[in-house]
Amino acid sequence: MAGQHRTQAPSRPIASITRQPExxxxxxxxxxxxxxxxxxxxxxRLHWYPRAxxxxxxxxxxxxxxxxxxxxxxxxxxxxxxxPAYAIAYVQLEEGPIMMSNIVGCDLDxxxxxxxxKLVFEPAGNGPLVPMFTPx
Length: 136
Ligand SMILES: [Zn+2]
Description:
Helices cover 6% and strands 35% of the residues. The protein has one helix at residues 24-31; strands at residues 36-40, 62-66, 70-79, 86-93, 98-103, 116-122, 130-135.
């Protein structure tokens, strides 16, 4: 039975990032294997999802900062009725922002709130690489 319920990337990933001017730097970095998150130059806070204005102070002074890719599962749900089943989670990055993403590469029953995870880029069809998380 072991491995029968391992998490897999869903065919239509939750975490796929639509390419827009606000998110293009993320995808360009991902193509080089780098994980970056937006940072506001006015208030200094990091945020997620990429957007044109800082969600905290509405400044448009957005730059991009390398992130560790380390985080913890904040909450999650397992979509068991999907074939194959997969896990969706909110992952809080070490740097603070919370990303909605997928947990891959582990037993679905092993996913826990507070579990340490690390980012992996997974290919999704012919589109850009998608940020997902696997147990650290
Ligand atoms: Zn700000």
